[in-house]
Write a structure and sequence with these properties.
One of its GO terms (molecular function) is 5-formyltetrahydrofolate cyclo-ligase activity. The chain has a single domain, classed as NagB/RpiA/CoA transferase-like (Rossmann fold), CATH 3.40.50.10420. β2 and β3 form a beta hairpin. It has an eight-stranded mixed beta sheet with strand order 6-3-2-1-7-10-11-12, with helices on one face. It has a two-stranded antiparallel sheet with strand order 4-5. The chain is an alpha/beta fold and about 160 residues long. It is globular, with a radius of gyration of 15 Å.
Length: about 160
């Protein structure tokens, strides 16, 4: 992807997420800050922070589920585990009602590939009612074998639309 395509696709993914959330009454949302080439939705987070409480995931231990801490755009960040940016002030919050989860790849059945740490799988196993939204570029649609502990996401949103 070119830099211009990244910007255009990120904007369109943000627009699709905003449309999806508009008809739902969530008050809390767990978001992510992009690493590597994940979609950058900071523009969307600015919009959402006026309507919802945002939080970011932090790792506690390599075999533990994620913890979520309060965050809003502009809050100071530091580098956490795995070189991921996290809020400098780590104020824990309850599990968000909805999560935006970046996908390295995804299937037509809404299973996702991540970076292999299992953090989201462990988190969702403990919180199965969480509304999960996978975030990906449409070119990352693939096929891969799933395992017993894999949990499909509620939907996947790409620059081309929403896969329910």
């Amino acid at each position: 992807m070119t830099a211009d395509e990244h910007v255009r696709f990120d904007h369109e993914i943000g627009r699709q997420v905003s449309l999806y959330l508009r008809s739902r009454m969530f008050k809390t949302i767990g978001v992510y800050l992009p690493i590597r080439n994940e979609p950058d939705l900071l523009e969307l987070y600015e919009e959402l922070s006026a309507k919802m409480h945002l939080s970011l995931p932090v790792t506690i231990d390599k075999d533990q589920p994620l913890q979520f801490v309060r965050w809003k755009p502009g809050d100071p960040l530091v580098k956490g585990d795995y070189n991921v940016s996290i809020p400098a002030m780590r104020e824990p919050v309850d599990m968000p009602e909805v999560l935006l989860i970046p996908c390295v790849g995804y299937t037509v059945n809404r299973f996702r590939l991540g970076y292999g740490g299992g953090f989201f799988d462990r988190t969702l196993a403990e919180h199965p009612d969480t509304h999960t939204i996978g975030i990906a570029y449409s070119c990352l649609l693939t096929d891969f074998p799933t395992e017993e502990n894999d949990i499909p996401l509620r939907c996947i949103i790409t620059e081309t639309g929403i896969m329910l």
